[in-house]
Design brief:
The complex is a heterodimer of chains A (409) and B (325).
Chain A: H1 15-50, H2 55-67, H3 69-82, H4 86-107, H5 111-139, H6 145-174, H7 179-203, H8 219-225, H9 229-243, H10 248-259, H11 266-291, H12 293-312, H13 318-343, H14 352-381, H15 383-405
Chain B: H1 2-29, E1 46-51, E2 59-64, E3 72-78, E4 81-85, E5 88-94, E6 101-106, E7 112-118, E8 121-127, E9 133-140, E10 151-158, E11 164-165, E12 172-175, E13 178-179, E14 186-192, E15 198-205, E16 208-215, E17 220-226, E18 229-233, E19 239-245, E20 254-260, E21 266-268, E22 280-281, E23 286-293, E24 297-304, E25 312-315, E26 318-323
Parallel strand pairs in B: 12-17
Antiparallel strand pairs in B: 1-2, 1-26, 2-3, 4-5, 5-6, 6-7, 8-9, 9-10, 10-11, 12-13, 14-15, 15-16, 16-17, 18-19, 19-20, 20-21, 22-23, 23-24, 24-25
Classes of the chains: A mainly alpha (409), B mainly beta (325).
């Protein structure tokens, strides 16, 4: 039996209800992202100005931040399938991250305690992402998955957009950037995250199937996922696509150097990308449902190739910045959620969270490696040749992905 | 469904109210203070510090060199970092909203003579012995999208000519005598000699941190030795107080030491705690530095520069020390 035929017809839910669960998950993500981006926005200022941590310590803390999630995703995904409680695992993840905000207040100036709290926060994120995406795939009919993910991602980035503004508002209300003001940001962030958890508990429906027969969800069954050709192809494609991405930091740094943008505007580059992402996520998701997910994903990587070429090319000036950022946001909008929409139906329902976490982890690890390699290439070859290689790699990724996923519906 | 909506509304209201009350209480605690006394940066037997006391947090204050724990003159000026020499002050402070900063060059009466927008979080501030050159270091974050990786940027301004070097990364760098180029170059912690163009600083690249000597006129920088951070040149320009990562690993903390430039000899100072600050020389014999106390406070400590003695508190509830006299 082909895996893609499993789990197709078990849940006939009406469209209205489906939309409700996706919207509920989207609202939880929106609220949670306000909370987490509030902290992300002020954390560097807090650590350095208020606690006097040096960049080296910050680097260590930041390393924990990014490194802690990858493997936990796999564990969380497997666990959610095993107990067949995706909502519960996601909820635990959201709750851990919420409590971590209070942990920041309690940690005080201890670098070790701050590192532990940030690791806990990332643990929460690692736990919740795959079950949440699995719930989305289980809550929408297959022909609307692209739209469902598009709406979810748009709501998610709307929260990310509002977070820093809320943080600035709190800081402005409390006054000078004393530790008190930062504590107020963390406490507010906790309250908002708690609202997210509350909404999850009240309005998100779990998608519980009868407890799977013994052996359906086991390490062996999870490993057997890789024996399925469509899953393996998706995983390889996710890794290939991850490898073709050089890292946001580099893209923004290149733009900034090319255009000699005042470094004050630097954070705005990410805002520009986010804005394009926010606007395009839902329409591109709908487009993917209509004309096929693979073409949209491939077009997304096409946009990435253009961005790389623009960054290495002779055109310059503000139009370059605007076009690059719009295309970069379009790249994210066309790939991030759509890839999950592509993956959902291929994975058996009983192992869907495990499968999604596998694909997300594969992509994340590949992305990490390619960013490191690009940093090296930049140093050894200089910007021009490195960008040419990056663009070439992205073209190659498009070809390989097309070859791999042509048959995956 | 109805009950769930009611529970949700009640929960949201309670949580938002809790946040509002906390913010309100924090705002009430944080009322600003009025200035008490006149602060002058003119040379004299005084110490300039940034206050961390609850009543005057962030304000620039001076205390008597002979009675540093005694009464303080509190100015209305607030800074995140401050330093002064020969009647010129350098104040790194917030500029409007919380994400932008500026440096302000102050005259001896604390009037701002020049303001330059800064990108990044203020970290180090220094003024040359003549008061003519000022240098600063900021931490620059990457983008929030990516988790943000820190780098530092150090700049120098000639307050007489207005000549500005916004980033030392633009200078011609040599590492162990050979021309060196890298994208991961970071500079911080500048300190000046008396000639108004030579300076020392920290340079980091490829995971190593070096003491470098630079020339502001020639725009050149060359490495001298490894694992020396945040140098601070003694008044007679013969020694450098610095912090070095214990076992070359910043995670283990920093040790305060003094390097004799002629002999290359390093003397660890009697301070055994981790010091993450750019030390300031009080005179030829002693240095001062800040040690944080909890999350809210910091004290300025002093220790002899020859490795003898014991550290003692010089100015309680203060940081960013500078000897004016």
């Amino acid at each position: 039996m082909y895996l893609s035929t499993i789990g197709r017809s078990e849940h006939k839910v009406s469209r209205g209800k489906i939309a409700a669960n996706v919207l509920a998950l989207g609202t939880v993500s929106l609220v949670t992202d306000i909370s987490s981006e509030m902290v992300t926005a002020v954390l560097p200022i807090y650590l350095v100005l208020s606690l006097h941590l040096s960049p080296a310590i910050y680097g260590l803390v930041d390393g924990l931040y990014t490194g802690a999630t990858a493997l936990l995703r796999l564990v969380g995904g497997y666990l959610a399938d095993r107990v067949s409680r995706r909502k519960t695992i996601a909820g635990i993840g959201y709750a851990i991250s919420a409590l971590a905000k209070l942990g920041l207040v309690a940690a005080g100036a201890s670098a070790g305690a701050i590192g532990a709290v940030i690791t806990a926060d990332r643990t929460g994120k690692g736990l919740r992402t795959a079950p949440r995406d699995a719930l989305i795939t289980l809550s929408a009919p297959q022909d609307m998955l692209g739209r469902a993910f598009g709406v979810h991602r748009a709501m998610d980035s709307a929260g990310a957009f509002a977070g820093p503004l809320v943080a600035l508002g709190v800081l402005a209300l409390v006054g000078a950037s004393s530790t008190d003001a930062f504590d107020a940001v963390f406490v507010t962030s906790f309250c908002i995250a708690a609202i997210g958890v509350l909404l999850l508990i009240l309005f998100v429906r779990d998608h519980r199937t009868p407890r799977p027969a013994t052996g359906t969800v086991s390490p062996r069954a999870a490993a057997a996922l890789l024996k399925s050709a469509p899953v393996r192809r998706l995983l390889i494609a996710a890794c290939v696509l991850g490898t073709a991405t050089i890292g946001d930091g580099f893209v923004y740094l290149l733009l900034q150097r090319r255009e000699d943008i005042g470094t004050g505007w630097f954070p705005l580059l990410a805002v520009g990308t986010n804005l394009a992402y926010l606007v395009l996520a839902a329409p591109l998701g709908a487009l993917a449902d209509r004309f096929g997910r693979l073409p949209v994903v491939l077009c997304g990587y096409g946009a990435l190739v253009v961005v790389y070429l623009l960054l290495a090319g002779p055109v310059s000036g503000w139009p370059l910045v605007v076009v690059s950022l719009a295309l970069y946001g379009a790249f994210y909008a066309a790939t991030d959620g759509v890839l999950m929409a592509l993956a959902g139906p291929v994975l058996p329902e009983a192992l869907r969270t495990t499968g999604i976490s596998l694909i997300q982890t594969g992509q994340a690890v590949a992305y990490f490696v390619s960013s490191a390699l690009f940093g090296l290439a930049w140093q050894v070859w200089g910007i021009g040749p490195s960008m040419a290689v990056a663009a070439g790699a992205a073209v190659l990724a498009i070809v390989v992905t097309f070859g791999l996923l042509r048959k995956v519906r | 469904m109805k009950t769930r909506i009611l529970v949700a509304v009640a929960g949201v209201v309670v949580l938002i109210a809790a946040a509002a009350v906390y913010v309100g209480m924090a705002a009430a605690r944080n009322r600003d203070v009025a200035a008490t006394g006149t602060v002058s940066l003119a040379p004299g037997p005084r110490l300039l510090v940034r206050s961390t006391a609850d009543a005057s947090r962030g304000h620039v204050v001076t205390v008597s060199s002979t009675d540093p724990g005694g009464p303080r003159a509190v100015s209305p000026v607030t800074c995140a970092r401050v330093y002064a020499a020969a009647g010129t002050g350098l104040c790194l402070r917030q500029d409007g909203d919380l994400t932008t900063y500026q440096l302000a060059v102050l005259d001896s009466g604390l009037t701002s003579k020049r303001e330059i927008p800064l990108v990044g979080l203020p970290n180090r501030a220094r003024v040359s012995p003549s008061g003519n050159l000022v240098a600063w270091t900021v931490f620059v974050t990457g983008d929030s999208y990516n988790g943000g990786v820190f780098s530092t940027r150090a700049g120098i301004l000639d307050t007489r000519t207005g000549e500005l070097a916004p980033s030392l990364e633009d200078f011609a760098v040599t590492l162990d005598g050979k021309p060196y180029q890298a994208v991961d170059l970071n500079f911080w912690g500048v300190t000046f000699t008396r000639d108004d163009h030579t300076f020392y600083a920290t340079m980091s690249t490829a995971g190593h941190r070096y003491l470098v000597r630079g020339d502001f006129r020639a725009h050149t920088i060359g490495s001298i030795r490894e694992n020396v951070e945040c140098p601070s040149l003694s008044p007679d320009s013969t020694r450098i107080a610095f912090k070095s990562a214990i076992d070359d690993d910043p995670a283990k903390g920093w040790r305060l030491s003094v390097l004799d430039l002629a002999s290359g000899r390093v003397t660890p100072l009697a301070e055994s705690r981790s010091v993450d600050d750019q030390a300031a020389w009080l005179d030829e014999h002693s240095v001062a530095y800040a040690i944080p106390r909890g999350t809210q406070h910091s004290d300025v400590w002093t220790v002899p520069a020859d490795g003898s003695g014991v550290p003692r508190v010089l100015v309680p509830d203060a940081e960013s020390p500078a000897a004016l006299g």
